[in-house]
Amino acid sequence: MSINEDHNRDIASFRMPAFDVDGNLGALAKWLRILGFDAAFPRKSPSRERIFVTTRLVLESPVTVVVDDPDPIGQVKQVIADTGIIVREEMLFTRCFLCNVPVHEISSAQAGGRVPGPILQSKRVFHECPQCRRVYWEGSHEKRIKRRLADAGLSLVRRDSKGPLL
Ligand SMILES: [Zn+2]
User: Fold this and answer.
1) Which of 17, 95, 136, 156 sits CB 3.0–4.6 Å from 89 for a disulfide?
2) Band (166; pLDDT cuts 50, 70, 90)
3) How far is the CA of 103 from the centre of ligand 1 (A)?
4) Is 158 helix (H, G, I), strand (E, B) or coil?
5) What pLDDT, on the 0 to 100 scale, is given for residue 86?
6) Cα of 107 to ligand 1 centre, how many Å?
């Protein structure tokens, strides 16, 4: 079995992959979190059952993705190409991009006082990070992020499609 086959088999064993991201790839870690993935940062070395993303060739790690694109979105594309992970639209914005923990839905009453009044009036769905208490709502930044991904040629698997589950 070649090194590549070993590598691909190891990657495939990660049903819902989690990442350890090297210290010089902070923007990539944030993007992976925005896409809904568990991305611990900063990490100097890989831990068990997580995919290590680095710019260095780390031979002792069984599951390492080496990126060399200077652009964070380009790096995301390299991670996707190398791991075969599926990026599903409904996974976007399910995780706090600062704390790397899943957010949970809260009521507009719970969001009251913590978001601008007009936002509270016009939005129905709010999420909160259980760690930093930051409140998220659907807004123009979502459209901007989706457009940036689309412009980079990064396609999302939509909710209603029959693509493979992670
Ligand atoms: Zn947070």
Assistant:
1) 156
2) very low
3) 8
4) coil
5) 87
6) 18
Q: Are 131 and 96 in contact (CB under 8 A)?
A: yes
Q: What's the average model confidence in pLDDT over 103-127? A: 93
SS3 152: coil
Q: Treating both helix axes as pointing N-terminal to C-terminal, what angle do 26-34 and 72-83 enclose, rounded to 10 degrees?
A: 60
Give domain limits for the chain. 3-91, 104-137
Residue 9 alpha carbon to ligand 1 centre in Å:
33
d(CA 33, CA 58): 23
Nearest CA among 81, 84, 75 for reference residue 32: 75
- In this predicted structure, the answer to whether residue 117 has a pLDDT above a threshold of 70 is yes
Query: How far is residue 17's CA from residue 50's CA, in Å, rounded to a whole number?
Result: 7
Q: Write out the two tokens for 30.
A: 């944030």
Those residues with Cβ within 8 angstroms of residue 134's Cβ, 6 or more apart along the chain or in another chain? 96, 98, 128
Q: How far is the CA of 148 from the centre of ligand 1 (A)?
A: 23
> Under DSSP, is residue 23 helix (H, G, I), strand (E, B) or coil?
coil
